[in-house]
Amino acid sequence: MLAGEASGDILGAGLIAALQKRYAQVEVVGIAGPRMQALGAESLFPMERLSVMGLVEPLKRLPELLKIRRTLRQHFIQNPPDVFIGIDSPDFNLGLEESLRAAGIPTVHYVSPSVWAWRRGRIKKIARAVDHILTLLPFEADFYREHEVPVTFVGHPLADDIPLDVDVAAARKKLGFSGDDQLVALLPGSRGGEVRLLGPLFLHAAKWCHQRRPGLKFVLPAASDERRQQLEAQIAEMPGGAELPLTLLDGDSQTALAAADTVLIASGTATLETMLMGKPMVVAYKMAALSYAIFSRMLHTPWVSLPNLLAQRELVPEILQDDATPEALGAAILQYFDDPLLLDQLQREFSELHQQLRRDASERAAEAVYRLLESRKSS
């Protein structure tokens, strides 16, 4: 089992726990984060070595990544597992899955690559690489069925874990905010490259908002010690940063989301978590200019954030690349405070989407893996 970042570690841990209910002994070897390791998974390399972003940036780490993949391929061919499960990280996992499947090892890919959105030609490689694919979102499964790739829509574990009614008061009490505070959560991403590009932008957007609404307060969860140090340096470098009413947290992003009135967030998995929390959001993203130029030309959908993709229309504003200025982000944030009808309608639609994804995902994923293994035994 191989997870390349924190979101994959969460999925992997849920899947391991569900498999342990079906099998008396489950031995998991590969690349794992702390949650998977807590359930007994052995990690042959640190998960952080796979956590890279963009299209161009991974080229700088390509020799190391290729060496890791060669080592894993050799290890698993020499020590064949009953099944190999790649969790997300498609650029790394699919090549490994293809070679392992060719060697006779059953392969499962958990989390669909965004093949329906860009680089659609990858569907041929996916069909060669996997015996079964597990999707988190319903429209993804439809795409694979159209292309005759074995697929199971499992729902999303976050939809199972996050209650339909979030306890805002408890979250605010935990973080030291009152019920009357107007609170904006800032989530500029978990990777160093994301925080380098989005951290200063989000801080300046917060400053822009605070200048117009002095009563606003802000909370910013840091994904790790390294990200906290990075954010602290950015706050210190920003003129007036020390005066911004900003609470910097060590992790605890779910509490920050639960407590917030609205959220400024990097495009990614966290937008789904924010939607499941029922929180209005402004989605922003920046990447290196060359990466964006390549990515934007390959995109087959008008949206990048998961709430909009699920709804197949723009539920929340997406402000990307050069359009992502402090003024544009700040104006979108303040709109939620000025339009309560917009807020009520958005929260109703978020609740409907939450219930669509609430499928007991880890159990459904484990059942699909179990069926694959049992069919291999019988054949």
Question: Which key features would you list for this structure?
Answer:
single chain; 379 residues; alpha/beta; five-stranded parallel beta sheet; 18 helices; 13 strands; globular
On the 0-100 scale, what is the average pLDDT? 92
**Helix content estimate:** 40-55%
Order of neighbouring strands in the sheet with most strands: 10-9-8-11-12-13
Main beta sheet: strand number and arrangement?
6 strands, parallel
Q: What is the straight-line distance between the termini?
A: 23 Å
Notes on the structure:
This protein has helices at about 5-20, 35-40, 55-60, 60-80, 90-100, 120-130, 140-145, 155-160, 170-175, 190-210, 225-235, 255-260, 270-275, 290-300, 305-310, 325-340, 340-355, 360-379, and strands at about 1-5, 30, 40-45, 85, 105-110, 130-135, 150-155, 180-185, 215-220, 245-250, 260-265, 280-285, 320. It is α/β, with parallel strands linked by helices. The strands form three sheets. Strands 10-9-8-11-12-13 form a six-stranded parallel β-sheet, sandwiched between helices. Strand 4 (about 85), helix 5 and strand 5 (about 105-110) form a beta-alpha-beta unit. Helix 1 (about 5-20) packs across helix 18 (about 360-379). The longest helix is centred in the middle third of the chain and has 21 residues, at about 190-210. The radius of gyration is 21 Å and the shape is globular. The mean pLDDT is about 90.
